[in-house]
Design goal:
The protein has 322 residues and is an alpha/beta fold. The chain contains 11 helices and 11 strands. Helix 9 links the parallel strand 9 and strand 10. Helix 3 packs across helix 4.
Length: 322
């Protein structure tokens, strides 16, 4: 059933941020929901089917709350609100398990919030559990959100150091043929960690903490034989670990530490016939008390909208092949 709803906003100074440059946010919402939106002064008129109009109203009100809290908004935040509302509609007859987007992680440079119900569950699991597995396709925020929680806990004094590691698996190139010393050879594999840290900490502070050892970014092999106490440990790209490597890093966990393991089992770079340590760990540890597993899917992809379509296309090809 078609309906028309008029919204009146009192915070005139905030409306340019809410509407977007040249009404880009309103235009984006129109396209996503298939409705018509017209604005005049401090009023907005929504026209379309009942559910879409109600959804647009909820999104605009929620975005305005974010702006009032000095948070930046864009199309990514619109998509996030639509995901939460869709989840709420899909589970309206069930007891909600996650409150909508209430977890906000604060770092030196920005505040970071979940953009999907699974991301919200992931943040809560990390903050409340000592070991968490984040499993799913690229672009779902597995590594970024884990780094955000690590930085926030370090700044709050909950842990004394941050340890980020990745298996240095050659994906098309051999380490021995790359130029430079060992650090220069492995740094490209660890670049996503550096990028996430740059988003959350001033460069000078980050480099100082790396020099003092409070922040350590290293290949997985460097963890052998150590006990990682009073630390927040992140193992990224864990699908590229062998079963032996996975057991090694899981048993490094020391007192007052927590560990997040992230990866996408469908994208392993291990040689043919070698079982992924991540796959093995999920089979062995599933059901162990105090270890949380959060599974992401293509609906949680928060990168460019084409990434979700690409993931979906590859998933479909995989299903057809099977």
């Amino acid at each position: 059933m078609s309906t028309t709803q008029t919204l009146e906003f009192k915070q005139n100074k905030l409306l340019p941020l809410l509407f977007g440059e040249h009404n880009s946010h309103l235009n984006y919402l129109e396209q996503k929901l298939g409705i018509q939106i017209s604005d005049r002064g401090n009023t907005v008129t929504l026209s379309g089917d009942d559910l879409s109009v109600k959804t647009a109203e909820d999104v605009l009100n929620s975005l305005l709350e974010k702006i009032e809290k000095k948070r930046e908004i864009g199309t990514a935040e619109i998509d996030a609100e639509l995901r939460f509302l869709q989840n709420k509609q899909d589970n309206k007859d069930e007891q909600p398990t996650v409150s909508k987007g209430k977890t906000v992680i604060k770092t030196k440079k920005k505040s970071i919030a979940a953009r999907s119900p699974n991301q919200e569950a992931y943040l809560r699991a990390i903050l409340n559990s000592e070991m968490v597995f984040g499993l799913g396709p690229a672009g779902t925020g597995k590594t970024y959100l884990a780094v955000a929680c690590a930085v926030s806990m370090y700044l709050d004094g909950q842990v004394e150091r941050l340890i980020f590691c990745r298996p240095a698996i050659e994906a098309g190139e051999r380490l021995g043929f790359l130029p430079g010393d060992m650090k220069e050879k492995v740094d490209p594999y660890l670049r996503p960690i550096y990028d996430a840290l740059h988003d959350m900490l001033p460069h000078d502070l980050m480099m100082k903490k790396i020099e003092t050892g409070d922040i350590e970014i290293a290949p997985l092999a460097f963890m052998r034989g150590r006990t990682l106490s009073n630390a927040f440990v992140i193992l990224d790209e864990a699908q590229n670990t062998t079963t032996t490597q996975m057991k090694m890093i899981l048993t490094r966990l020391g007192e007052s530490s927590r560990m997040v393991i992230t990866g996408d089992i469908s994208q392993t770079d291990l040689p043919v016939g070698v079982k992924s340590g991540l796959r093995d760990a999920t089979e062995i540890l599933h059901g162990v008390d105090d270890i949380k597993f959060i599974h992401f899917d293509k609906g949680d992809v928060t990168r460019h909208h084409l990434v979700s379509k690409i993931v979906n296309a590859y998933d479909q090809k995989g299903e057809n092949t099977r």
